[in-house]
Design a protein that fits this description.
This protein is of the alpha+beta class. It has one domain: Peptide deformylase (Peptide Deformylase). The chain is built from 4 helices and 6 strands, in the order H-E-E-E-E-E-E-H-H-H. Strands 1-2-4-5-6-3 form a 6-stranded antiparallel β-sheet, with helices on both faces. The structure holds zinc ion. The site of zinc ion has 6 residues, from helix 2.
Length: about 190
Amino acid sequence: MERALTYYGNPVLRQKGDTVETFDSDLKTLIRDMFETMYAEEGIGLAAQQIGIAQQICVVDVRPPKESEIHFNYSYDGKSTPLDLFMPLAIINPQVSLTDTNESLYQEGCLSFPNILGDVSRAKSISCQFQDTDGNSHTIEADGLLARCILHEIDHLNGILFIDTMEKKDLQKNLTRIKQLKRSHKS
Ligand SMILES: [Zn+2]
């Protein structure tokens, strides 16, 4: 079932997510709903806070239309598993470390900020440990779009939003729209 998105101004977006302790059928339903919502909204990632739930859960799907169009490196549990075998991916209780602290600048959007785009500088590559819907541990190593997407979503799980790290000039450009959004979603 598709769930309603939360927009900037809703205090849940500033809440740090609680650790998931119970890996039951409710969790699986929630994650299925998050996948459906992400696809319906045409996003490549979604954090639980974006549907009003402050928990350490996010989903990502950065598969390009064709296999030949994958422009990032990754490994899943140390192997070059095809993306189709583990995406859409649910990331629960993630712990991320930066494996290349050099940063790259790239334009991002966010489903909680409709029509707002801006450049965000992020580490080039990461290693992320997380649990799946059964509570099993996995590690994903990634650079490029996959690293960026995971970092954006993990920020959400800690109440951090892309406007916090957006390049000043882009923030300035979007300021009026951001303020309007905040006003209309405060209550
Ligand atoms: Zn976002």
